[in-house]
Specification:
1078 residues; globular; 45 strands; 34 helices; 11-stranded mixed beta sheet; alpha/beta
């Protein structure tokens, strides 16, 4: 029965008040016995006793009985009991004597009847719960039962004896009783110890271990710069030296490869290093072909391939002026009224193409290519265009902007397309990966999916692109050893002596606007000005890393002016309150400064990772801890749990963080320090490298298992390896061999692109979406297909019949289904003779239908009024709320979905014969007997009655509503596989059943395909609407050729006019053709 409800909006959101009988929640209790002094004996049992009638009203003799778990030792499970939803319940667990302690009792120990303790309560206090949802499990066993069922392992040593003894001494009656208890109730678990699931998990783990990079693998590591530089001597000769900058990622990786720092020797024996080749700029550019050959030759012993650029300055300019600020969420065009400079973009393309050419010329078959950072963002696309089978991975070391920033770039699609040409795309932290996913979905329409093993992926162009977040780590052992060198220790002592008896706050930043140094100085000035207890006791040592000849001298002048002002206010003390040092800093100097400092202060406004906080923890030990204050806009803030996170724009918060760090007690300081110190020191750069390369190799082998994602209806579905691209050659081969064919096509998103919402006023003060009609080429293809009398072509759409008549009315024999099948215009061969109106209504209107429509219509109007950009679509059979252009999240849509879903006992439409569907940007409520699947089912049945058995069906769609079509066609395919006469066999062997091989071939005549690679009920997928158009054009050409080949002597009557009637009994024989010609 439909419950009476009142829905209203308040200041906090939507509120629904319902009246009527209370709803019920099925509750199951799970409890673990941890009483070693008084264990539960064989002639005792556990019961749940509570303050409601279902739990005995505090009478243990009437409590809910529990049975021992068969999979978890010392755990007890109850049957499901129905309790009032939303009403608090008090309960306890009681141990009572069994009513019959016979052979059917389960013995869990070696206690005798004389050792049985009296009745007791197993809880020291009353427990409380509030049942919610349809089913509710109370895990008072600390999750032990669930963990054993999900991850079955052998029992713990302390529990092995009693558990195994109890199970081994069970009688047949006991086993039968245990089986009955395990199947009673509504909470049957599919997991059991061992079994096929455990074997599947072990097999997957073995496969992953087998897909690790080793000495047989060739890996190309691509950076902008090589880890070695080529220098030209005064005599014109060339020499190779190590590149400057030990903290550069390419240098760190080179050392990680050369000196493996795996956790133990056993792993070193199990894994051998792959053959790594570096690709990048050698540091010296020349246009002379002979000199290029010499440079390439001298770099061979270092496993390096040089990249030579024709115009390095021009080709690199786009990276500095556009990409670098863009990656750090700066709208580079907001103050520029000029048009976008295409010259810089073309230079960037040439820059990346040069790297792709260098890789492609040396790339062996089966090699892995690992491209790094935004400078080389287009390299994956150029590589895959040259060699589609190339396995490319991309790691972005900086931040990635949100969609509102990236969408400002004219070439945003090209950038995303290139990144999605990779097998694996990796980011420093998940926040950047989330930005990437939202950009792919918004700008490219690429859906997100999940694969087994916790793999996140993007489905694009028929491929799965793995997306992962794994921040870079430092080779801590190497820097710890470096810290112990006498030179570093001497420099650290000098810094400490200079700032003796003062709290030293150190900062090391690059000379760039994203470092937030000015914000840092402002906050520090307020600290020493407002906090008198810190005056003359704290100092700030600021290192600004950069070239002294750089154009950022303006920033340095501002910083030195602020430092001079602060120092002057305190009488120019020695050491100064603020010290600014501008210029390059070596790793030894960096380690010395960080070792001497008490606090590290970072106020960057956008930084991809920032290795300085990690290096600070490396430079300190447990006996000499320090504290880190890091900006919440820095990537490392997401995993440094002991550091203090601050908003650099909030000066008060920065001052408070500095005050707290300076006055922090030693115990608190050590506790915060140790949280991150062990984490940083445990990180191994070699393991980080191997994890990324192993993921790339697994992607190359494509052994990720089933793909799990949200389908067009936002439901979680699986997509196995059998889900593949629709092979046009097979379709074109099977098409002419079929006797009768049915073709079902969706319109928007399949025959024509699916546009966003364009607001247009209509009746009832609602709005509709104006869509885009198919191209003339598509209409011509449909017209040619419908002229073949063996074809029944139907367009099944959610649009109204007025729209379909407007778009497809010129095609005479085309069948039309409007509003998901509520209205149906049969094609000529299925049309009833003597009917004046071609449209038929498959549904019937009633007062009940008008009732739910009025409720839904009023509710959706409230949402449309409050959500700008959302619209309400009123149809004859359904009402939809479209929010695609509103920019609202799925959470709001899910709230409306739950409110309307008739399966929910508290929903507005509970008891009404309707279904609620949720798609990409819309929610629709319609009668439960109206959907595209039921419409296709009726059409197929009518075709079988009037024409005959269909032995070729092609069904293509793109949205949630099309999944019903796929389901029906797949079911029709299964039912038709038994007896399905082919056209050739029907002429010769009528009534003979098909053999196994022929049935298998016939099964390929039923094709269901979804547009876009996403989880679906369809058996195949096509990439986009362009492929659908191409397929229809090829089928139309076959239809035209068939007409001309059968009536070659009468092109004017049949071939050209296209109005002839074809023979339904198959192709003409030679004798028939001779009679016709005569």
């Amino acid at each position: 029965q439909a419950r009476s409800c009142e829905v209203r909006f308040t200041g906090t959101g939507l509120v629904m008040e319902a009246s009527g009988p209370p709803t019920k929640t099925r509750v199951q209790f799970r409890w673990g016995s941890y009483n070693e002094v008084s264990p539960i004996a064989w002639n005792q049992e556990v019961r749940v006793v509570g303050n409601c009638e279902e739990l005995g009203s505090w009478d243990p003799s009437r409590g809910l009985p529990m049975m021992p778990s068969e999979v978890a030792p010392d755990c007890w499970i109850s049957k499901g009991v129905s309790l009032n939803t939303g009403r608090p319940v008090e309960y306890r667990y009681a141990v009572v004597p069994k009513e019959s302690a016979g052979t059917q009792s389960v013995r869990l120990g070696n206690l005798t009847s004389s050792e049985v303790p009296p009745l007791r309560w197993e809880d020291h206090q009353i427990r409380h719960c509030m049942p919610t949802g349809r089913r509710h499990i109370l895990e008072d066993d600390e999750g032990r039962g669930r963990s054993v069922m999900l991850y079955p392992t052998s029992p713990m040593p302390s529990q092995a004896g009693p558990w195994l003894t109890g199970r081994s001494t069970q009688t047949a009656a006991t086993k039968k009783q245990g089986a009955a208890s395990s199947t009673a109730g509504d909470f049957e678990s599919p997991f059991t110890p061992g079994g096929p699931r455990r074997e599947k998990l072990e097999k997957q783990m073995l496969n992953e271990r087998g897909l690790q990079v080793n000495k047989d693998d060739n890996v190309f590591v691509v950076f902008r710069l090589l880890p070695y530089c080529v220098h030209r001597g005064e005599d014109g000769s060339f020499s190779v030296v190590e590149a400057e900058g030990e903290l550069k990622q390419v240098s760190l990786l080179r050392h990680a490869i050369a000196q493996s720092d795996l956790r133990d020797d056993k792993e070193k024996e199990q894994r051998s290093s792959p053959n790594v080749t570096f690709v990048g700029d050698p540091g010296l550019q020349t246009s002379d072909p002979e000199e290029r050959k010499i440079i390439a030759e001298i770099l061979k012993p270092y496993s390096c391939i040089p990249v030579f650029l024709d115009n390095p300055v021009l080709q690199y300019e786009f990276c500095l002026t556009v990409l670098w600020p863009l990656m750090h969420s700066m709208k580079v065009f907001q103050n520029n009224l000029q048009a976008f400079d295409d010259t810089k973009w073309r230079g960037f393309q040439m820059f990346n193409r040069a790297y792709a050419d260098a890789i492609h010329s040396k790339l062996p078959s089966g090699a892995l290519v690992w491209v790094h950072d935004f400078y080389l963002m287009l390299v994956p696309r150029y590589l895959t265009l040259r060699q589609p089978a190339t396995t490319v991975g991309f790691f972005l070391h900086c931040a990635f902007p949100g969609s509102e920033i990236l969408r400002c770039v004219p070439y945003r699609e090209e950038m995303l397309q290139s990144m999605l040409s990779c097998k694996v795309v990796a980011f420093q932290i998940f926040e950047y990966a989330r930005h990437f996913l939202s950009c792919c979905q918004l700008l490219l329409g690429a859906a997100m999916s999940f694969q087994s093993g916790g793999v996140l992926a993007v489905e694009h162009e028929g491929r799965s692109v793995i997306v992962r977040a794994d921040h870079v780590v430092l080779p801590s052992e190497r820097f710890v050893a470096r810290l112990k060198e006498e030179l570093v220790q001497q420099k650290a002592r000098e810094v400490r002596e200079r700032y003796s008896k003062k709290t030293l706050i150190a900062s090391i930043d690059r000379d760039e606007p994203f470092a937030g140094i000015v914000l840092k100085f402002r906050a520090f000035q307020r600290l020493v000005a407002d906090c008198r207890q810190h005056q003359h006791r704290v100092c700030l040592l600021q290192h600004v890393v950069g070239d002294t000849s750089n154009s950022s001298q303006e920033l340095i002048n501002v910083l030195k002016g602020m430092a001079e002002e602060t120092n002057r206010s305190f009488g120019h003390p020695d050491p100064p309150v603020i010290s600014v040092i501008h210029g390059p800093i070596s790793v030894d100097e960096r380690l010395a400064v960080l070792n001497a400092a008490d606090i590290l202060l970072d106020t960057s406004i956008n930084d991809g990772l920032n290795l300085n906080p990690l290096l600070f923890y490396v430079a300190h030990e447990r006996d000499y801890p320090g504290h880190v204050i890091v900006s919440e806009f820095s990537g490392c803030s997401s995993f440094l749990t002991g550091a203090t996170k601050v908003n650099p724009w909030n000066s008060d918060a920065v001052v408070q963080a500095l005050h707290t760090a300076i006055t922090m007690e030693a115990e608190t300081l050590e506790r915060h320090f140790l949280r991150d110190h062990s984490y940083v020191l445990d990180g191994k750069l070699t393991q980080w490298m191997y994890q990324n390369l192993d993921e790339l190799k697994r992607a190359q082998a494509d052994t990720g298992g089933h793909i799990v994602g949200l389908d067009a209806g936002m439901h979680l579905q699986r997509m196995g390896h059998s889900f593949r691209h629709l092979n046009f050659d097979i379709v074109l081969k099977q098409y002419p061999q079929a006797r009768y064919r049915a073709i079902f096509l969706d319109n928007e998103g399949t025959l024509a692109p699916d546009l966003g919402s364009i607001l247009a006023p209509v009746t009832r003060a609602d709005f509709r979406r104006d869509g885009l009609p198919p191209d003339p080429q598509v209409l011509d293809s449909l017209r040619s297909l419908t002229r073949d009398q063996r074809n029944i072509v139907v367009v099944v759409s959610g649009r109204s019949k007025e729209y379909l008549e407007k778009w497809f009315g010129s095609i005479e024999d085309l069948g039309l289904c409007a509003e998901h099948g509520f209205y149906w215009a049969p094609p000529g061969r299925l049309r009833n003779t003597g009917s004046s109106d071609q449209w038929q209504c498959m549904g019937q209107s009633s007062e009940e239908e008008e009732d739910w429509k009025s409720v839904v219509h009023e509710l959706m109007k409230m949402y449309a009024k409050r959500i700008q950009g959302s619209v309400v679509q009123y149809k004859g059979s359904a009402i939809a709320w479209n929010y695609r252009q509103a920019g609202v999240g799925k959470e709001l849509a899910l709230e409306l979905f739950r409110l309307l879903d008739p399966e929910g006992p508290d929903a507005l439409l509970h008891g009404y014969p309707v279904t609620v569907q949720m798609g990409q940007g819309w929610i629709e409520v319609k009668h439960q007997d109206i959907d595209k699947g039921k419409a296709v089912e009726r059409i197929l049945e009518e075709m079988q009655e009037k024409i005959g058995q269909m032995d070729f069906v092609l069904c293509i769609g793109d949205d949630r509503s099309d999944e019903d079509m796929f389901r029906v066609v797949n079911s029709f395919r299964s039912e038709s596989m038994g007896v399905m006469p082919s056209r050739r066999m029907s002429d010769q062997n009528q009534g003979v059943k098909l053999g196994h091989a022929e049935v298998k071939a016939e099964a390929e005549r039923f094709f269901t395909a979804t547009v876009g690679r996403k989880p679906s009920q369809a058996k195949y997928y096509v990439k986009n609407t362009v492929e659908v158009s191409d397929l229809l054009e090829k089928l139309a050409k076959q239809a035209i050729q068939a007409r001309f080949s059968r009536y070659t002597s009468m092109p004017s009557l049949y071939g050209l006019a296209g109005t002839g009637s074809e023979d339904d009994e198959g192709p003409m024989t030679g004798m028939q053709s001779m009679k016709l010609n005569s």
